[in-house]
TrEMBL record:
GO terms for biological process: 'de novo' IMP biosynthetic process. The gene is purC. Keywords: ATP-binding, Ligase, Nucleotide-binding, Purine biosynthesis. The keyword Ligase applies. InterPro entries: SAICAR_synt/ADE2_N, SAICAR_synth, SAICAR_synthetase_CS. Pathway: Purine metabolism; IMP biosynthesis via de novo pathway; 5-amino-1-(5-phospho-D-ribosyl)imidazole-4-carboxamide from 5-amino-1-(5-phospho-D-ribosyl)imidazole-4-carboxylate: step 1/2. This is Phosphoribosylaminoimidazole-succinocarboxamide synthase. GO terms for molecular function: ATP binding; phosphoribosylaminoimidazolesuccinocarboxamide synthase activity. Signal peptide: none annotated. It is an enzyme of class 6 (ligase).
Length: 296
């Protein structure tokens, strides 16, 4: 029996990047679009193949990290409509937890801003005198809220995560699992000449109450990846992630409120190239090989 057409499936949710379609009692179709957002606002034009790169890299990491924590993936081919092959997955339904599980191994981004102001990140006191982009003594868990579409995520401390989740033991499992995932991914990335500066995970509970990692994992949208060969502390780093688009957006004078400006063609092309390079560098495989494996 051939999979249904996308148009025949009930739309459950549309996010900044993904749509979710109902497949019945236990599964949903998760589709990654080519949309790109900065500062939680979607730009009007897409990055070609971005959704396929996010799906492909998530597939790589879900398989590699399965011994650490179960994930929600059922299949990237069976039951996936032909028109979204390569950018979609059939996944298990989860009860998602209301926090973003952010792990930082280096001091950068909003963490650097908070550290400069307070010496802390998410309530965690850090050593004095750290420089921008410096590696932390050990990875830290710096959770945030999950904002509605168009709003901004807000950093919270661990007690804030406990309050949001409603269960301290479960919050501790989320923290410990997120750090374990980061450590494993950072070690592999380093072996490929890439530094994983920070990343965020989304966790949920399955029908049996088991903690499961879902959504996307360790992609250029959810992580900061830096080429190791150009790394030096004291300033921001070139990256494989959408920081390239953020830097452009900041340079335009845009005030970070809707509507977002259209991304110029050269920035679109450069961003696509960085996403594909991230996939090929980290996995050691060509992006075309993913497209061939998931072709209808």
């Amino acid at each position: 029996m051939s999979p249904p057409s996308l148009a025949d499936l009930p739309l459950l949710h549309r996010g900044k990047v993904r749509e979710m379609y109902d497949l019945g009692a236990d599964t949903v179709l998760l589709v990654a679009s080519d949309r790109i957002s900065t500062y939680d606002v979607i730009h009007p034009n897409p990055i070609p193949d971005k959704g396929k790169v996010l799906t492909a890299l998530s597939a790589f990491w879900f398989e590699r990290t399965a011994p650490i924590v179960p994930n929600h993936v059922v299949s990237y081919t069976d039951g996936v409509p032909a028109e979204v092959r390569g950018r979609a997955a059939v996944v298990r339904k989860l009860t998602m937890l209301p926090v973003e599980a952010v792990v930082r191994g280096y001091i950068t981004g909003s963490g650097w801003t908070d550290y400069q102001a307070t010496g802390r990140v998410s309530g965690i006191e850090l050593p004095p005198g750290l420089q921008e982009s410096q590696q932390l003594p050990h990875p830290i868990f710096t959770p945030s809220t999950k904002a509605a579409l168009g709003d901004h995520d807000e950093a919270i401390d661990f007690d804030g995560a406990v309050a949001a989740i409603g269960d301290r033991a479960l919050a501790e499992r989320v923290r410990d699992t997120a750090i374990a995932l980061y450590v494993a991914a950072a070690e592999h990335a380093a072996s490929r000449g890439v530094l994983l500066a920070d990343t965020k995970f989304e966790f949920g509970l399955d029908a049996d109450g088991t903690l499961v990692v879902g959504d996307e994992v360790l992609t250029p949208d959810s992580s900061r990846y830096w080429p190791a060969d150009g790394y030096e502390v004291g300033h921001g780093q070139p990256s494989y992630d959408k920081q390239y688009v953020r830097d452009w957006a900041r340079s335009t004078g845009w005030d970070k409120t809707p509507p977002a400006p259209e991304v110029p063609e050269d920035i679109v092309a450069g961003t696509r190239a960085r996403y594909v390079e991230a996939y090929e560098t980290i996995t050691g495989e060509s992006f075309d090989s993913w497209l061939e494996r998931t072709a209808a």
